[in-house]
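A.,

Following up on our hallway conversation. Structure tokens first:
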């Protein structure tokens, strides 16, 4: 049986080992889901370049999760139509990554995903909003994965080169703050600071894992 990275190399996805090298890390988390009947969502279909083919990671997820249903999402109607016409056994949806209602409706119709991978715009405010909207839609025990968090330091993507920034406007600063809020919420001997807004989904976070340019959040 091929590893996730071997499948990724076959499709030339930039998630594989010669490029971002995300797949070795992913397999540590995804292996338990490999043969399960689950839904896998990926935000962003990808671009055609000299090195990459459009939708290559969707094909990889399809081959890895052989009993799963893979869905890809993009806000580019041309990409979605082109990908839908290929009929690779993957569902393609036109959706902005921050469209909460769109994804809630899909859950109503098809059930909750076990894995969500955000490889969409990498714009900081969009990445944060997507997490806030979609993490509550995950199945219990599911994983929410955010890629290319290095853009937290790139101003053109809404990032901030000051990595001590506490404004929570980048995905890194936001997630580091969530680590504090998870602990605040679990305190049994005193109430959390009243001036901190703690979202309801905090109680659903089991763990937050930081890897090189990846963040993986597990739901209880």
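Then the amino acids I'd put at each of the 220 positions:
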């Amino acid at each position: 049986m091929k590893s996730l990275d071997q499948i990724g190399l076959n499709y030339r996805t930039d998630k594989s080992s010669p490029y971002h090298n995300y797949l070795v890390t992913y397999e540590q988390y995804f292996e338990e889901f490999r043969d399960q009947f689950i839904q896998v969502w990926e935000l962003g279909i990808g671009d055609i370049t000299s090195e990459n083919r459009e939708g290559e990671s969707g094909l990889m997820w399809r081959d890895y999760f052989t009993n799963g249903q893979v869905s890809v999402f993009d806000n580019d109607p041309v990409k979605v139509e082109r990908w839908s016409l290929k009929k690779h056994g993957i569902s393609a949806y036109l959706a902005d990554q921050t469209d909460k209602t769109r994804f809630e409706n899909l859950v109503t119709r098809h059930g909750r995903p076990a894995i969500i991978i955000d490889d969409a715009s990498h714009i900081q405010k969009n990445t944060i909003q997507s997490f806030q909207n979609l993490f509550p839609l995950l199945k219990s025990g599911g994983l929410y994965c955010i890629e290319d968090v290095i853009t937290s330091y790139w101003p053109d993507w809404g990032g901030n080169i000051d990595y001590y920034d506490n404004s929570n406007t980048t995905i890194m600063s936001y997630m580091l703050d969530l680590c504090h809020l998870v602990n605040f919420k679990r305190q049994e001997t005193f109430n959390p600071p009243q001036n901190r807004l703690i979202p309801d989904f905090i109680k659903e976070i089991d763990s937050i894992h930081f890897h090189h340019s990846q963040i993986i959040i597990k739901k209880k």
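The chain is about 35% helix and 15% strand. Curious whether your intuition agrees with the design.

B.
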